[in-house]
Amino acid sequence: MRTGKLLAAVACVLLLPGAGVLAEGPVLTVTKAGLGPGLPFSLTWGVDPVNPAYLVYDVIEGDLPTLLAPPAPFLPGDYTLAVTACLLEDGPLPPPALALAPPPAPPAVGQNWYLVLAQITPLACGVGSWNEAFAVAPFSQVGNRDPEVPVDPASCPCP
Amino acid sequence: MRHRPSVAVVWALAAGLAVSALVASNMGFLVWRTLEGPGPNSPTGTNTLALPYQRIPGLNNASDLMTDIGLANVGNVQRFLEATTGLQVYTGRKASGPDYPLAAGECYFVRMNATANYLIGGSSAPGLALSLDPPGPGNPSGTNFIVLPYHRTAATASQLMADIGFANVVNVQRFLAPTTGLQVYTGRKASGPDFALSPTECYFVRMSAFVAYVPSHY
Prior knowledge:
The complex is a heterodimer.
Chain A: H1 2-15, E1 28-32, E2 41-45, E3 56-63, H2 64-68, E4 83-91, E5 98-100, E6 111-119
Antiparallel strand pairs in A: 1-2, 2-5, 3-4, 3-6
Chain B: H1 5-15, E1 27-35, E2 46-49, E3 54-55, H2 62-69, E4 74-81, E5 86-90, E6 108-112, E7 116-123, E8 130-132, E9 143-146, H3 157-164, E10 169-176, E11 181-185, E12 203-207, E13 211-213
Antiparallel strand pairs in B: 1-7, 2-6, 3-7, 4-5, 4-6, 8-13, 9-12, 10-11, 10-12
């Protein structure tokens, strides 16, 4: 495992010409198989327009109420506790679309969010960004998601 | 709450990226909403419904929204008409008014025949600016019925006023289903109490000056 981590770190420093460049983020679309109750949802995304060579993708799922109102001492908008699952680790550009399991139905009233991140290689170790705001005017994202999204040290950057 | 817009600017400058008008997001949502039919919680079965700025493909008109929720459960879908402060009603049935297109950032009243749980899907559009109009020929009352992003930073009416620019906002109002009335918060002397905002509900914002409002979000 230590060797794997070392290789990943070396790759981050040496192999990535875009290292250190923050990505705009690939454009994400939530799709439904028609209109009507009970039909399945899926997720697709496009190439990151700022980094078109970033073609390896991670997708995470999170809990919206926890993002908006986390327990103390975390502040609203902190992603640290709000990430609940890694849905895709080092996946390709769709198709195929990524099927989404519906959140818990009422009375639980599940409210999920999804984020996609583009990397240049599976060993990119967070060179891409979970942020979205860099090419949007005027800026409307508050806070930096990247240091808050948990990282699995053996399988970066999905939790 | 963390209001750190300057951080985003610093990142952009550090990254050397040009600012563009791209309207897109890498964040999506699947969110349940219970739409109340006639009963103790909502005598008329009327609910406000905030859809994501980028809806699922195919959800384009009021008729599509009724189909998606389940036509049998929905009495009608209404949109607020700023010019008359009236409502345009689409029932999807005989003698209905005309169907109309749904628009990003526009809120709808959904009148239910029976309570139904609706799973809403969509994604964000962080560059979308809401045109918040003051009193004028196209909007005599200066009232705007708006949708906020699900991951907006404003958690209360007072925070929404601050995010828009307090001096430009007369009040923020929310629809009260149990009474079909409106709760008003002005943030000024003799105001009613502040209230919490909910992701899938919408709010009336009465303006005193025009603002192209891009809601802050996490």
